[in-house]
Amino acid sequence: MLLKTRQPMPISCLLLLVFLMMVIPGHAQVKQVEELRYPPLPDLVIPEPERVVLDNGMVVLMMEDHELPLVSLSAFIRTGARLEPMDKIGIASLTGTLLRTGGTTKKTGDELDEFLEGKAAMIETGIGGTAGKASMSCLTEDFPAVLEVFGDVLRTPAFASEKLKIAKNRMMASIARQNDDPGDIVSREFKKLVYGKGSPYTWVPTYATIMGITQKDLAQWHETYVHPNRIILGLVGDFQKDQALALLNKVFGDWAKGPEVKDAEAFIQEQTLAGVFYVEKNDMTQAKIAMGYQGIRRDHPDYYSLVIVNQILSGSFGARLFSNIRSKQGLAYDVHGGVGLQWDHPGMALLSMSTKTQTTGKGIDALIAESRKMVSNPPTEDEVENAKASILNSFVFSVDSPSKVLSKYLTYEYYGYPSTWLKTFRRGIEQVTLAQVREAAARHLRPQDFAILVVGPREGTKPALTRYKDIQELDIRIPDPPKGA
Amino acid sequence: MQISYRVWSQVKCIVLVVVAWSLSVAMVHAQDLGSFEQRVTQHTLKNGWTFILVERPVAPVFSFITRVNVGSAQEGAGQTGLAHMFEHMAFKGTPRIGTKDYPAEKTALVALEEAYQEYQQEKLSRNADPETVKSLFDVFKQRQNDASQYVIKNEFGDIIEREGGVALNAFTGADVTGYFYSLPANKIELFAYLESERFLQPVFREFYEERDVVMEERRLRTESQPFGRLLEQFVSTAFMAHPYHHPVIGYASDIQSYTMTDAKQFYETQYVPSNMVTAIVGDIQPKTVIPLLEKYFGRIPAGSPPPPIRTVEPKSITEKTVILKDPSQPLYLEGYHKPAVTHADQPVYDAIDDVLTNGRTSRLFRSLVRDKQIAVSVGAYGAYPGEKYPHVWLAYGVPGRGVTNETVQKALREEFTKLQAQDVSDEELARFRTRAKAGLLRALNNNLGLAMHMTDYHMLFGDWRELFRYIERFDHVTKADIRRVATALFQPTNRIVGMIETVVPAGVAMPTSASAGKGQS
Q: Are the folds of B42-91+164-299 and B320-504 the same?
């Protein structure tokens, strides 16, 4: 790994330091940070998981780790909320919850709770936007018994109607609360501007869609998507590979392969609509500001350059947004920004902050100015070198435990990235040139095309917003449940 | 990168990672105190600063946390939030880090502080003259500009991150302030240099800019969040005398008026080496690390221990209720006063907390979420807002749609009464001990987590070994203990209730059938 050695200091500088040390009595024996020299780190050996494909197409990645008597398993299931039909929004999430809480054909949900908690073990399941996940953790001695239950959870879930009712009630309660927290409003509404209301990436459940979902729908969703050839299992911990493989074959081996289907692509609007948008929320003493548009996928040729752009803009304490907007101007506690990088669909380029209502206008201007400056005062040689040093020197932390390595391999496997990705990452960063960083910044940070969203009190934000001719106010009222429900 | 303070008490290992050394099998590996201790070296410097070194060479990295035995409870009137403010200042550098020209900067900072004191004195005086206030403010702003020209922005954090540091952050609670990050193993000397430098002579540059940042933090977490608003009211109602009464973040007026001089005084009183403990966990060798600790941290002079807090919260003689009328959805809290975490009955409180709120088999989940289906989420904060002094055990329930707080209240109290009237089951006690044991195990495979837990126990109990010993006490918790403690705890006069009642402000249309039609509004 690259360990940046600092340039030796010029003599005049050293003299200054000597002077400084004299005026700070008692510390003269201590070195300046620039003088510190570090022994080399041994070459980083990244352990690799062993990859096995069961006869039914289930991919298994395994890494032994005997530090503690624990075994963990995590699985990706090829499904996701982006595959939901518009009239059943929430079905993926409900199915994900019910896999675990709804019990199996052998054990009720309550029996599962008792079985697992009695062993201080856990099995959890869920389905998010682009993937389903299932995980398990237990003491080594309980591994065979808990794995068997894990198999049942994936293969023969019961989707008990009583548990479905509880899960639906919880979702309805979250719908009722979806405008309480300002952060929730920003993340939900900004996505709609970026991907378009017709995109499933922006859909959220309503009372009507939740009420319409039945136990049969869940079983159907499971039947469609949960098959061994749509599952990637990652196993890490205190086991012997051969024994673990035998156990996995026992639990999953007789599960028939499902049909080979290619899932439909989720719709995304061609371009984010530029403009200024406002949501009224009066129980705040701040305004929340978000601006940006569609970002890129990780397989974009600008990927490595953008990792560096993001680092310079907002990736560290010394980054531009933190230094200029927070430390220098005191405008915000939370200020972030960067070009979002997703695995298999465009992420969001997004800059955001919260600031007192009186400085709403200043905040908007500051974020736009910092975006512009990435082009007009482009990253310097020093900034790029610092960013690279930071990324490369800290790389060890992304692979400092077998479970972290395994989770990366699982992710690559699921999203179809080569397993060499982890090994090529550092070289990719090292090879980026100053010119490439600048070009990428110019290509991907174009504030004139941003959608700008402000959430905050009407009175306080008025002076800032009257500066814009066409402000579109977003209606975030929660649709009532269907009549008679 | 956020410098966060925790509203909740700091890492609640006592409750979350409680550890039952049950006589069960599984513990054949190196998790018992005896074998773990072989990897631990404790070293206290002459100035009183204690270091706990743990060798865990699974990857060429290490993590550390410096825990300072000071929190918002040590703040006086007019200075609430100062502990947290100092935490922010500890990222601003030293005479050698973060400056282009320290001698000139030092002069500018002295002039700045004089200007601020003059401005503030006039502003707060009985017959403040607006003209004078304005001109003094202008002088202050001018001096702020003067001082800022010497600043190298965030150089302290920048050095750490450039050298590969991650998870650079800090937290402030009612009891404790913590600073932590992780570095590649070959940078141990950088850690020793920077971490000692930071507390040897912190420079309070950009103090008044950072005050504005902290004020934004208050607006973000407390003022603009329904739960934040409720908690601030709750805690100030719960404690009438003890400084747990005031918010960790501080009151707005204090944040906007404490000074650089205040912060310096606070630092000088509280940040003495005997009040600090650091744990370093990872790929380290004590024989090379200890000389570095002596060399760098040894520079810091010893100091007198800070004065203890005298005030003891008087026994509660009345039930207290806080009702926040708010546009957001209902929320219900119920707290009970309990003794400090060092009290002999603490393991019994841990058992009560576990039986009531841990997992899907817990009594509150089963009653309110599963069976009665009146709440969508229940839980507890075992120690609020701190644990070093007598504090509050706090349960919460998030009512389902259309369910009232009163319904949740009734169901919670039924469960509390049941604990007083009937013994817990054998399964519940066994589950409590088993989960605690596994909890400790899971806490051992993470450098930073381990450093957090060990310093937490060291600070509270005076010995990190208590992390392992504490669980032995769980074996002695009996069903009768649980009934006895529950009976004393769940009394109306010992109770504080907090709730949000939904009130839609006048002039705001009630949500009606907004015809989004497509189901994604």
A: yes
